[in-house]
C-alpha cells in the first residue's frame, strides 16, 4: 500500500494532529453550510453541541500553532523566515474578511482565527524564552476570560472594551455579532500552552516518535500528516468548494 511520503525535518505526529483538526473543522463547516442552505436545522450560535465543537477545534489549532513555534525556534528559524509565513497568514486573514463581507455583510469576520493567529504568533515568538513560565502565563488569559462577566458588572466603564476597535483584545462583556471571533483573551493562553507543551516535548524527545510501519495507524497517520502540512491552503479552499458544491446541487434540483 502506498503512503504519502514523510518530509524530512517535519514532525509527523504534530502534522497529523493538525490534520485531524482540519478534517474536524471541515465536517463542522459542512454542517454549518447545510444549515445555511436549509438542508438541516441547527443553532450554531447557542447550541452547546456546536459551541463546544468549535472550542475544541480552535483549541487544537492553537495548540498545534504554539507547538509549531516551539519547534521553529528550537530549529533556529530566523525572523525573516517567520515573516514570510506570517505574511501568508495575514494575507489570508484579509481575504477571509473580504469574502465574509460579501456573504455576511452584517456579521462579517473582522477578527477571526487567522486574524487572531497573526497577532498571537508574533507574541508567542517574542515570549518563547519564557520557558516554564509559559504554563502560568498561559493560564492567566484563560482565567481572566472567566472573570469578564464579574469585572464588567463591577466596573461599568469597561463597556468601552465592547467597541469593535478594542474587542479583539477579548475584554468584552459578550461576543460581538460576527461569524468568527478569536480574540487574544482567552485564546492567547491556549497558544502559550502549545508552545510550553512543544518545548517540554522537545526536551524529552517525544515529538520525534516514529509512525508505526503497519496497522491502522500506519495507514491513517501519513494521510493526516499530509493534510496537516497543507492546513492553510485547505482552510482557504474548503469553504468555497463546499458552498460551491451545495449551490450547484440546489441549482440542479431546481
Explain the layout of strands and helices.
Elements: H1 12-36, H2 48-74, H3 79-103, H4 113-126, H5 133-146, H6 148-154, H7 164-167, H8 184-204, H9 216-229, H10 231-253
Task: Characterise this structure.
The protein has a domain at 78-209. It is 69% helix and 0% strand. It has helices at 12-36, 48-74, 79-103, 113-126, 133-146, 148-154, 164-167, 184-204, 216-229, 231-253. The longest helix has 27 residues, at 48-74. It is globular and about 60 Å long. Residues 1-6 have low confidence and may be disordered.
Could you write a compact summary of the structure shown?
This protein has ten helices and no strands. The protein is mainly α.
Task: List the main descriptive attributes of the protein structure presented here.
single chain; disordered N terminus; 254 residues; mainly alpha
- Unreliable spans are 1-6
Cα Rg: 19 Å
So what's the overall shape?
A: globular
Average pLDDT number: 91
The residue fraction in helices comes out at 55-70%
DSSP, total strands: 0
Structural class: mainly alpha
Order of helices and strands, N to C? HHHHHHHHHH
Strand portion: under 5%
Figure out the total of helices: 10
